[in-house]
Design a protein that fits this description.
By secondary structure, the protein is of the alpha+beta class. It has a three-stranded antiparallel beta sheet with strand order 3-4-5, with no helix packed on it. The protein has a two-stranded antiparallel sheet with strand order 1-2. It is globular and about 40 Å long.
Length: 83
Amino acid sequence: MVFLGFGKYVRADRIYALEPIVGDNRGNGRRTLVWVEGIPEPVIASRTQETILEEMAREVEAPRGKRSRRPVTLHPQLFLEEE
């Protein structure tokens, strides 16, 4: 799984294109459009295409079961119930 930012993850083997966001469309954490197999519109990532490619390469190179596992970060604000 590749972390895209904004709490989004996608399978590395499903990513088929990365497109840097340029000009006025870039900003507020918008860095890269990630084209994922099975999703008709690109996913907006807050990470650059270089960092996404680096993480994809690590996923491919690491043998099964030996992949680095980062702790899952919980974002409490996503789980708060409104009153």
